[in-house]
Every structure is written in structure tokens, then in C-alpha cells.
Amino acid sequence: MDLFHGLTYGFSVSLQPSNLVACFIGVFVGTLIGVLPGIGPVATMSLLLPVTFAMSPTASIIMMAGIYYGAMYGGSTTSILVNIPGEAASVVTCIDGYQMARQGRAGPALGISALGSFIAGTFSVLGIMLLAPPLTSVALRFGPPEIFGLLLLGFTMVTYLTAGSKLKAVAMALLGMLLGTVGLDPISASPRFTYGSVTLGDGLGLVPIIMGLFGISEVLLNIGQGVKQEVFDTRIKGLMPTREDWRRSAGPIARGSVLGFLLGILPGIGAIIPTFISYALEKRIARQPERFGRGAIEGVAGPEAANNAATGGSMIPLLTLGLAPNVVMAVLLGAFLIHGVQPGPLLMKEHPEIFWGVITSMYVGNVMLLVLNLPLIGLWVQLLRVPYGILFPLILLFCVIGVYSESANVWDIVVMLAFGVIGLLMKRFGFEAAPLVLAFVLGRMAEESIRQSLLMSSGRFSILLTRPIATVFIVAALSVVALPVLLPPVRRMLRTVPPDDTA
Amino acid sequence: MTGRERAAAAVLLVFGVIALEEAGRLRFGSLARPGPGFFPVVLAAAFSLVCAALLVGPARARDAEAAAPLPRLGWPKVVATMAALFIYALVLEPVGFVAATFVLLLFFFRALERQRWLVALGSSLATALLTYLVFRVWLNVQLPAGPWGG
Question: How much is the ipTM here?
Fold first, then answer.
């Protein structure tokens, strides 16, 4: 199927009424939880996994993907109006977005972030359509050594690009993989670390861990420290950016789109890191860098474009390799597997309706989001006024329902609560949860691929360096470690915005 | 590394060593035929090494910020929330979703958030019934059955 046929076929799938409804629910729920601080796309997608049992695989994936990019749209609204990131990828938007709102320019700030997100989202959909099919044919040549090389690159990325201590991130990644070994050994099926428990025999569940680390712990932190809720109380007038705003934003949106998309493809990056890099880049090349932090529209346009483009880019490894490059994609992978569909190089051939349907639905969803977001901003503002005392019991309850409904096992709720406490302690002691969860997901695949590689080579690790594709990944992983040490400028580029820049 | 972080690293190191000891009981196999214990042993060993490095690692200038006191955390409220959720998880199946959820929410709204009795009762009951209707009846999601609502 060539690109044109793929597209027309895809639209014929994504425009079917049931899929349109799924897409709408996805982007609407995504925007909603994006607006609400304290609940993000990862927890929401896990929560809604069981709801998708009854839907067709295509509709489920369309809805799940919609939640993710919808959350990227919604997160910026809270950043701009309340100076609290609605979800993690909108942290940078707070800096200049909130300043714009204080200067009475909340309208253009919201407008440019919605329009910039739309442009970037569209760009990344085009990118997927062009890149995914050729990558699929490369992916067909992947064996265990190649998979292991790619996973190694992913682990290196996720640990070396975290904002905090690299060593701590490595520790969390190793811990995540270690937790992933609980349950049956993937090759010999003998039990490991189960201590006779039936719940542990199935392995620790991804959903309880995610809900605990990202949902429960966030709520605990908020009720422990108190949330300040000051919605910016001016009338929001004129969402359309002026001609001057557009002139300033065009470059940042274009650069943010390309940057976000390309970084998003790489395993381990996610949507957050590109926003920091985009902000740092715009500030560095700006003619008046001193405007940044004082309400520069470039500081909103670039990062918002970057996080939306990154969501699209991160779909590529999932659709072509069946590999989850970040935590959100891990949940999406779960959604595929629940329906018995294995994403990867064969997806395009075996399930063209899912492959092309999901890609084109992202375009449809982006249009919906634009239409939805601009007029609904008033509603989101009202939502932000709901006191946290009402909100947090509901979030906790939804976490419990989500975990229970997935397995019908109350011990999974206990696992979630335990990881809620662990997550709270991790936040207090400065450990990040993302490397842990990503490693937990990929650990199983890493174990299988390295053991199969060793079986293939009769115990020689050199197999990782004698096959060209695997070698490329290993060398890339080593360069990620080595380059920042060798080249200080690269280190400055890769380092996320240092504390003094964000103040 | 601050004192606080060193303490965390020490706890993690203890966990790593226990994990290594436990992983050692699994069949390691050989490099040519790695067994179930191969990967866990390598991971637990690497994890313990990294934690040891964190424990003895030098204090860096950048840690000055990390050494600043953490924002105060209202532990009583956090502990009360977790205890309530834990009890909720245990009674969920014997009691049933609607009744257990009603009591849990009532505790949150009234005891933790000091809403007026009428508001607390009303919103707890409404939420318990609404979530039941939406998730169990409408979306057909499995919820714990029990004598009072399931």
C-alpha cells in the first residue's frame, strides 16, 4: 500500500462514526486531565484501559492516543493561567506564559499555544506518515542483538538526559528492571521472587505501579504540602495572537516542531525534555534574550510546539518496532496487547486499519482539539476553581477503580498504595519515577533479547558488535555517555535548563 | 550528596544486597545458556554498586540547592489518607463497592477536609452511586461485588 492509498484508506477508517466518537472522547478527556494538575496522561490512560475491552482495537488505540496529545494541549492552559503545570511537559510554559497572563495577555498566550500545538501536531503526523513505512522495512531485519542494542540506547538516553543526578537515574532504571523480573522467567517459566504469592506470580502489574508512582504519590504530595490555587482572575479577551505575535512565534514553532519530532523518536526522551531544549534554544538565538522570563511569546510557542511534535515522534518506534520509547507509549503498547494485536514491523501489513486509522485519527484529533480548545477555555478556567479538597478524593477513587477493574484483584490496589508511598519518598529524596517505570516495561524485553543473543552466539557478547544495526545502536549509546564529557558545548546543549535560567 | 540522600542510598543498598542474595538462589546458568538467575543477579549487583557509589559519592557544589530544607509535609494527613485507602482495599470485597466507597469518601470529605455534615454526606453518597452507575452499569467495568453494592 503506498502512501496515498494508505492515507485515503486511513481516513476512511478514522472518519467512521464510532472511531470519530472514540477520537473525540480521547482528546476531550485528554484535555480535561491535562488541565487538571495532579493527574496526567499516564494515569488516565491506565485508568481507561479496561474501558477499552468492549471497543474495537482501532477505536481503543485512537482514544488512547487522543488522551496523550489532548493532555499536551490542556496542560498549557493551567501553566498559563495558574502558573502550575497542568502536566509535566508544560513546566516550561509556566515561565513566560504566566508572565504574559499577568500582563493581560493570557488570550494570545493560550491562542498561540493552541495554534502552535496544532501546527506541530500536524507536522508530526506528516512525519509519521513519511517515516514509518520505510522504518518498518528496516525493523523487519531486527533480531535479538538489534533489539538489545536499541534498548541499551533507550536506557542510556533516559538516564543521561534527566534533569537531576545521572547516577540516581541509573539506580532507578536498574531498580525498575529488577522489579520487572518478579514473576515467571520469560524463557524457562520458572518463578522468581514470588514467595508463593499468586499476585506476585503474575509479576507486578504495570498499571498499579504507574498509578502509584504517578497518581497516588502526586495526590499525597499535594495534600501534604497544600496546593495553592490562584486562578488568574482577569477576563480573557482576544485569543487570536496579533500579527506581531505571529512574526515572533513562526520561527520558534517551526524549530520546536522539528526538534520535538526528531527527539521524540529516540527512545527514552518523552515529551518533557524537548520543551526544555526548545526553550533554551530560543533563548540562546533570541536577539533580546532578556525578554525571556518576562512574558516572551517565543517562550510559549517553541516549547508547546515541541511537546506536541514529540508525542507524534514517539509513536514511530511503537508502530514500527513494537518498542515503547517512553512511559506513555508503554501504556499504549498495553492497549495493543490487551486486544491481542502486536505492534511492530508487521502491523502495517496485518492490521492496516489500525496502522493508518490511528495515524490519520491523530490528524482528525488535532483539528478537534483546535476547535475544542479555543472556545472551551472558559470551561477549563471554571474547572480550575474546583477546590482540591473535592478533587483529591475523586482522583484517589478513580485510581482504585482503574487498578481493580483491570485485574479484579484487591492486592493490586495494595501494590498501587505501596508504590504511592514509594513514589512520595522518591519525590522527597529527589529520585525520578520515569526511568524506573520505563525500565520496568523494557526490562523483560531486554532480558529476553540479551539471553537469546547469548544463546545465538554461544555466550559471546561480541555478537552485539558484529551485526551492523546492533553496532550502530551500541556506538550511539556509548556516544551519549561519552560526548557530553568530550565536548562541553554538546553538554550545554543537552543539559536541560539549569536552575538559574528558570528563575 | 546530602545527608538525606545518603540515607536514602543506604536503604536502597540494603535492598540491593538482599535482592542479590535472593537472586543468587535462582539457577544462574552459563553465559552460553543463561538461566533464570542470570539477569536478576547482574541487575542486583549493578544496582548495589550504583547505590554504594551514591552512598560514598562526593558532595557536589550543585547539591547546595538540594540541601535546602524540603517544603514541610503534613505527615498526619498523608498517613491518614494512606491508612484509609489501605483499610478500604481490605474491606472492598467483603463489604462491596458502594458501601465501602461511601464510607471512604465520607472520611475524606468530613474528617480530612472538614466539609459540613450535609455536604459531606450528600457528595459521598452521590459520588459512590454515580461512579457505580458509570463504571459498572454503563461502562461494564468489573467492581468488587458484596452485600452492599457490587
Answer: 0.90
